[in-house]
Specification:
The chain is α/β, with parallel strands linked by helices and 186 residues long. It has one domain: 3-Layer(aba) Sandwich (Leucine Aminopeptidase, subunit E, domain 1), CATH 3.40.220. The protein has helices spanning 38-47, 49-58, 94-111, 131-148, 162-178, and strands at 2-5, 8-14, 24-28, 66-69, 78-82, 116-119, 154-159, 182-184. It has an 8-stranded mixed beta sheet with strand order 4-5-3-6-7-2-1-8, sandwiched between helices. The longest helix has 18 residues, at 94-111. The structure holds ligand AR6. The site of ligand AR6 has 25 residues, from helix 1.
Length: 186
């Protein structure tokens, strides 16, 4: 499923983010940038130990922020390590922090010269964010970025499971209905 937003595009697809042919791959990291399970485990495995070495140079990243590193062995320009909130552990600021993690990931990818980017469902795994709510926040934040006209202009949201993909599709359909600037197809 694909939508045109401003001069950019947003595509939802099911898959393994480590296999996406884009300039920047986002991983759902922890604030120590220490690697872990889930999508972060998959990204570190595919990138090799060079990626953890790059993370160690940076040291850490606060919740709601993102940093870009060289990609190790992955065939992309940059890996963006975005730190989403642990649901229920951020004093009611979870929505704002999830939006900020997405916004910062887009900003640091643009600063690294990336024109295309692939996101996983940040915070929707072990961090426990309800997928319906996360989908609305993620898609609105990406819409705002694309309307602003800065790179990256091509955004993919890559869902690992069929249920997550269905939820994101539903959220995109709702966004299309209430916002004429978001147009299906293209
Ligand atoms: N490609 C795309 N999506 C994936 C993949 C993949 N290869 N593997 C899993 N997912 P999670 P979080 C989906 O738990 O909730 C790590 O240990 C998965 O189905 O990876 O932000 C970090 O180091 C889910 O929908 O991230 C942190 O400590 C989504 O990715 C912590 O987990 C996110 O699930 C971050 O937790």
């Amino acid at each position: 499923m694909r939508a045109r937003i401003g001069a950019g595009s947003l595509e939802l697809r099911r898959g393994d983010i480590t296999r996406e042919g884009v300039d920047a791959i986002v991983t759902a990291a922890n604030s120590a940038l220490a690697g872990g399970g889930g999508v972060d485990g998959a990204v570190h495995r595919a990138a090799g130990p060079e990626l953890l070495a790059e993370c160690r140079k940076i040291g850490g990243c606060p919740t709601g922020d993102a940093v870009a590193t060289p990609p190790g062995r992955l065939p992309v320009r940059a890996v963006v390590h975005a730190v989403g909130p642990v649901y229920g552990a951020c004093g009611g600021r979870e929505d704002e922090l999830l939006a900020r993690a997405h916004r910062r990931a887009l900003e640091v990818a643009g600063e690294a010269g990336c024109r295309s980017i692939a996101f996983p469902a940040i915070s929707c795994g072990v961090y426990g964010f309800p997928v319906e709510r996360a989908a609305r926040i993620a898609l609105e934040t990406i819409r705002d970025h694309l309307l602003g006209g800065s790179p990256p202009h091509e955004v993919r949201y890559v869902l690992f499971g069929a249920r997550e993909l269905e939820v994101f599709r539903g959220a995109l359909r709702e966004l299309v209905e209430r916002d004429p600037r978001v147009v299906l197809g293209g």
